[in-house]
Design a protein that fits this description.
By secondary structure, the chain is mostly helical. The protein has one domain. Helices cover 64% and strands 0% of the residues. The protein is built from two helices and no strands. The radius of gyration is 12 Å and the shape is elongated. The protein starts with a helix and ends with a helix.
Length: 36
Amino acid sequence: MTNYERMVKGLIYDPADEEIMREQSIYQRKVWEFNR
């Protein structure tokens, strides 16, 4: 089971996982642009 699958299921996961951080960075950029 990947960390992303663990996150979706509400289990303990590593938030510094590369897959999770890659997706999160997309949303962080959008929020940053919105708040400019």
